From TrEMBL:
<feature type="compositionally biased region" description="Acidic residues">
    <location>
        <begin position="1"/>
        <end position="14"/>
    </location>
</feature>
<feature type="region of interest" description="Disordered">
    <location>
        <begin position="1"/>
        <end position="65"/>
    </location>
</feature>
<keyword id="KW-0597">Phosphoprotein</keyword>
<feature type="domain" description="Phosducin">
    <location>
        <begin position="1"/>
        <end position="241"/>
    </location>
</feature>
<dbReference type="GO" id="GO:0001917">
    <property type="term" value="C:photoreceptor inner segment"/>
</dbReference>
<dbReference type="InterPro" id="IPR023196">
    <property type="entry name" value="Phosducin_N_dom_sf"/>
</dbReference>
<keyword id="KW-0966">Cell projection</keyword>
<feature type="compositionally biased region" description="Basic and acidic residues">
    <location>
        <begin position="45"/>
        <end position="63"/>
    </location>
</feature>
<keyword id="KW-0539">Nucleus</keyword>
<dbReference type="GO" id="GO:0005829">
    <property type="term" value="C:cytosol"/>
</dbReference>
<dbReference type="GO" id="GO:0008277">
    <property type="term" value="P:regulation of G protein-coupled receptor signaling pathway"/>
</dbReference>
<dbReference type="InterPro" id="IPR051499">
    <property type="entry name" value="Phosducin-like_reg"/>
</dbReference>
<dbReference type="GO" id="GO:0007601">
    <property type="term" value="P:visual perception"/>
</dbReference>
<dbReference type="GO" id="GO:0005634">
    <property type="term" value="C:nucleus"/>
</dbReference>
<dbReference type="InterPro" id="IPR036249">
    <property type="entry name" value="Thioredoxin-like_sf"/>
</dbReference>
<dbReference type="InterPro" id="IPR024253">
    <property type="entry name" value="Phosducin_thioredoxin-like_dom"/>
</dbReference>
<keyword id="KW-0844">Vision</keyword>
C-alpha cells in the first residue's frame, strides 16, 4: 500500500518541486535546467532533449525509465567527447616533449642568408659537430636558383635540426670557384668537413621542381635525418585510427 502511494506521488509530477523521491528530484532538475541556464550556453540538441523529457507522459512507467536512461547516456556521451579531446591534447603535448628531448643540438627552422665569406666560414667551423649544414651557392637570375631557395625554405621548416643557408657566389670571396656555369651549387657540411658537393644541381631535377624533389634527392645520399612528426599529423593519425 505504501509502495503504491509513493509511486502515485512520483507519477503525479506537475512541474513543481513538491516530491522528494528520486524520480521527482530528476524531474525537478530537468525543469530547473531549462529555466535557469542561459540559452546560449546550452546546446540546442540538449535543450530539446530536456524539454521533451520533462513534457512526456507521466503515466507510462516504461517511458519514464527510458527518459531517465536517455539523459544519463547524453551526459556520458558528452563527457566522453570532452575526455577524448583532453586526451588528444595530452598526447600531442607528450609527443612534442618527446621530440624536444630526443632532438639533440640547436634548432633552426628557416633559411639563413649569409652576407660575407667570413660568415660562411664561421658557420661551418663554429657550428656543433652533430649539426648538418646545407649551403646553397646562388646568384640572382640564374635558372633554378629561385626554385631551390624556395624549396630549401620549406625543408628548413620540416627539418629544424638541419641548418639551411644560402649565400651569393659573389659574396663568398671565392667567386672564381663558383662561376655562373656551376650554379646553383649545394654544399653539405658536418663537423667542419665538406661531406657532399653538388654543382649545377638544378640539372638533377625537372624543368619545374619543388621541395619534395629536393628532399628526395638529399635523402638518396643520406643527408637528411628522420623527418619530425608534427602535432597536426599526430591528430590526423588519431582520426584515421578511429
Amino acid at each position: 500500500m505504501e509502495e503504491a502511494k509513493s509511486q502515485s506521488l512520483e507519477e503525479d509530477f506537475e512541474g513543481q518541486a513538491t516530491h522528494t523521491g528520486p524520480k521527482g528530484v530528476i524531474n525537478d532538475w530537468r525543469k530547473f535546467k531549462l529555466e535557469s541556464e542561459d540559452g546560449e550556453s546550452v546546446p540546442p540538441s540538449k535543450k530539446e532533449i530536456l524539454r521533451k523529457m520533462s513534457s512526456q507522459s507521466r503515466d507510462d512507467k516504461d517511458s519514464r525509465v527510458h527518459r531517465k536512461i536517455s539523459i544519463q547516456e547524453y551526459e556520458l556521451i558528452n563527457q566522453d567527447k570532452e575526455d577524448e579531446n583532453c586526451l588528444r591534447k595530452y598526447r600531442r603535448q607528450c609527443m612534442q616533449d618527446m621530440h624536444q628531448k630526443l632532438s639533440f643540438g640547436p634548432r633552426y627552422g628557416f633559411l639563413y642568408e649569409l652576407e660575407t665569406g667570413e660568415q660562411f666560414l664561421e658557420t661551418i667551423e663554429k657550428e656543433q659537430k652533430i649539426t648538418t649544414i646545407v649551403v646553397h651557392i646562388y646568384e640572382d637570375g640564374i635558372k633554378g636558383c629561385d626554385a631551390l631557395n624556395s624549396s630549401l625554405t620549406c625543408l628548413a621548416a620540416e627539418y629544424p635540426m638541419v641548418k639551411f643557408c644560402k649565400i651569393k657566389a659573389s659574396n663568398t670571396g671565392a667567386g672564381d670557384r663558383f662561376s655562373l656555369k656551376v650554379l646553383p651549387t649545394l654544399l653539405v657540411y658536418k663537423g667542419g668537413e665538406l661531406i657532399s658537393n653538388f654543382i649545377s644541381v638544378a640539372e638533377q631535377f625537372a624543368e619545374e621542381f619543388f621541395a619534395g624533389d629536393v628532399e628526395s634527392f638529399l635523402n638518396e645520399y643520406g643527408l637528411l635525418p628522420e623527418r619530425e612528426i608534427h602535432a597536426t599529423e599526430d591528430t590526423n593519425m588519431e582520426e584515421d585510427m578511429e
